[in-house]
Amino acid sequence: ASLAAMDAMGGDAGDRLVKTLASPRLDTVVSAAFKLSRSKCVEAIKKGQVQLNWEVSEKPGREVAEGDVVTFRGKGRAKVWSLEVNRRERWVVEFSLFK
């Protein structure tokens, strides 16, 4: 699905989830979205299996922002709808999963 198609869906076609993370790094967002350990996500990112906004990103520490689309080859796609810091200085991320 293209970004325009995902925006048109408004997240209704995917599971809408809210997770609390230590940081908005690509590896932590992928780990939360696809329910894998962070070390497995780092390995997949370094192998080029993860895309951020349709571009391969081999840097696990790259920050994810609102509106970004994360694609994990063979697992699905996640769109980040919101990214906020709570009062405990942890990141609250709302995203939708598309398989």
UniProtKB/TrEMBL annotation:
Natural source organism: Chloropicon laureae
Keywords assigned by UniProt, alphabetized: RNA-binding
Name under which the protein is recorded: RNA-binding S4 domain-containing protein
InterPro entries, A to Z: S4_RNA-bd (IPR002942), S4_RNA-bd_sf (IPR036986)
The RNA-binding S4 domain, residue ranges: 24-86
Keyword presence, RNA-binding: yes
PROSITE patterns cross-referenced by the UniProt entry: S4
GO molecular function: RNA binding
Family annotation (Pfam families): S4
Cross-referenced SMART domains: S4
